[in-house]
Every structure is written in C-alpha cells, then in structure tokens.
Amino acid sequence: MRPANDDKLTPKHWRSAPDLPSLLLGLVCLLAPYAHVPNSLAWPGPPQAQNHAHKGFELAQQGKLKEAEAELRRAVDLAPENPDYLSGLGSVLSTQQRLREAESYFLKAVKLAPRNLSFRRNLAANQWELGKLQESKALLEVILRSSPGDERALLLLGMVMERLKNYVKAAELLGSVPDLVKQRPESLGALVRAYYQTGQKQKARQTLEILCEHPTGPTAAFLGAQMATEAEDYEIAETLFRSIEAVYPDKAALGYHLALVEYRMGRFS
C-alpha cells in the first residue's frame, strides 16, 4: 500500500543532478571571511599583503580556489599575524577538503583574535568535518554563551549533536534554525534522522517533503529515502526510491536500496 501523502514526496521538476558537495563546503560558504571582500580589514598589514589578500578573497568568491590559495599564502607570508588572512586561507583549504592543514590556520587566527566569532565558527566547522566532535561542541558552546542567538553556531552545534547521537538536542537545535537547515540536504537529513530517533515520525515525514523539494533533486530524495529506510519507515522509503527511478544517475545503487526495502517489507521475489 502506498502512503497517503506520497504525491507530496514525488516532485515533478527533477532532472539529473550532480553529486552533493560535502556539508562543510556549504557551511564554509556561509561562514568564511570570503563571503564578502572586506573594504577595510581590522588587521590591514603591509599594502602588498593587502593587495594579495583582496585578490585572494575575490578569486575565492569566483570559485578559483587554487589561485585564491596562492594569493592568500602570499598575504600570510607578508603579514603572518593577520587573523583575517589566516582564517581566509584556512577557509580556502577547508573547501578543498585539506582539513588538517586548514585547522592550523584557523587555530592561529583564533589565538590572535579570540573574540572573533566568525573565526571560531570556521574552526568549529572544520573540527566537525575532522570528526573532532567534542572540541567542536565545546567551541560552539563558547560562541553561544557570548551570542545565544547565533544561528550559524546553532546549526553547527545541531549537526555536532546529531553526529554524537544526542538526537533530542539535535532536533531542538536544528529545528530552531529552519531557514539555514533548508539550505543543505545534509542538514535536512540530519534533522530527519533526529526526528525519527526521537519518535517524531510526522515531523520527520514533513521534513522529508522539504528535502524532496530541494534543488539538488534526486540526490536529495535518495538521501531522504536512506533516512527513511534507516528508521524502518519502509513505505515512505519505497515511494522516494521509486520517484527517482527515471532520473537517478547511479542505477545500481538505487536498485540495491530499493530491493533492500522490498525485502524488509516482505515483498522481495
């Protein structure tokens, strides 16, 4: 039997979509100093360093990460105690998944400017991706003591708590920042899991509907179907998997997961 709300879980606008980027990439885009090119930096340094830094930030905005890295390295060489440049370089390295190297620059930036919440958030996001969950949690709690309404810190802490399997707290935190959660399939998936794990099945299904309307299309639906399978909500999982049969690029993976759901529903032939 198909669930009553399966039409809501089958968007009609999908096309094949590229693979999802990592969550960190999305978080870094939200948190990194190159989200905008500062007109005047708090720690300007020599003019030559400023020129390299501004060029690096502009290149990062354009997605030219290797070129941005080179410019920011020149800026850091000329002004090694400028935390703007250090955190900017760390963000560019994080976006390239060079997380351990990035961490060293974030740590230096935080040491030089311990009250700067943006630098702390960048470090916390990088630690989350590295699996340093307790360190990330502690840092985010410090941020939220200073700025209780910091939505980006709330989002990150929710992701950390979900990874730590504190699903009650994860649901509370992620549910408090719906606009940020909706931007990333992975954060929506984390909220779905938290709702399922805390017995809030209806909220989990409502969040799955939002996930299935995400612009990443079938890849987001596949993630949602995996969450539903994990929670043993097999009818919803089957609906989601079948809704992307025509457009999901990895037919083998889709077929495997659909067969697994059918087997667990007792309908495998």
List the helices and strands and how they pair.
Elements: H1 23-31, H2 47-61, H3 65-78, H4 83-95, H5 99-112, H6 117-130, H7 133-146, H8 151-163, H9 167-175, H10 178-181, H11 185-197, H12 201-212, H13 218-230, H14 234-243, H15 251-264
Helix pairs in contact: 1-6, 2-3, 3-4, 4-5, 5-6, 6-7, 6-8, 7-8, 8-9, 8-11, 9-11, 11-12, 11-13, 13-14, 14-15
CATH fold group of the domain at 23-205: Serine Threonine Protein Phosphatase 5, Tetratricopeptide repeat
Q: Using the alpha-carbon principal axes, give the shape.
A: elongated
CATH class of the domain at 23-205: Mainly Alpha
State the end-to-end CA separation.
Answer: 17 Å
Quick check: average pLDDT?
85
CATH superfamily heading of the domain at 23-205: Tetratricopeptide repeat domain
Q: From the coordinates shown, what is the CATH architecture of the domain at 23-205?
A: Alpha Horseshoe
Largest sheet: none
Helix content: 55-70%
Q: Using only CA atoms, what is the Rg?
A: 21 Å
Helix-strand pattern: HHHHHHHHHHHHHHH
- Poorly predicted ranges: 1-8, 10-25, 27-40
Secondary-structure-based class equals mainly alpha
Number of strands: 0
Estimate what percentage of residues fall within beta strands.
Answer: under 5%
Q: What count of helical segments does DSSP give? A: 15
